[in-house]
Sequence to fold (171 residues):
Amino acid sequence: MEQKELLSAGVQADREYQRQVQASELRIQAELDRNRWGLVQSVMDKISRQLVELRSDEVAYRPVFESLLKTGVDSIGRQQLVATLGNDDLPRFHDGWTTIVKACCGDQVEVKLSPEACHCSGGLRLASKQGDVMIDNTFEGIISRREDELQQLIFERLFSTVSTKGTVFDG
Fold:
């Protein structure tokens, strides 16, 4: 009887030890997941800061801006559009706006410049003249639309050699 009790106590002690080990592993895994997510978020913040820096470099920013304009015009597919620029871009592009539009989009499209600015760090919003179609090609709009893809790509690049089985990033 005493031997059965010792054996039973040993089994229970082993179970308790395994439970504590599993609980500890879960806590460590949760902490690793939080750290990974923090790193992904810090890279997303760095992307936003680099886009702001890009806007301040006129030579590098102009082709990006023109590309966003052309992509937006092509996506909407209308001949009369209204563009809303950010506070910093409105005075920068105001004087040569018609030249920029003709160079990017040709003579078939008329893109008027809205006198009011939007609050964005770069890029532009395009809307049809009637206001029924709008494309947000601001930096914030693009990041918002592609946030999941960006986060997944960042995670893959940062942790390509880390096994994610059983983590929140594994689905």
User: Anything to note?
Assistant: The two ends are 49 Å apart (CA to CA). The chain has two domains: 2-54+147-170, 61-145. The longest helix spans residues 2-56.
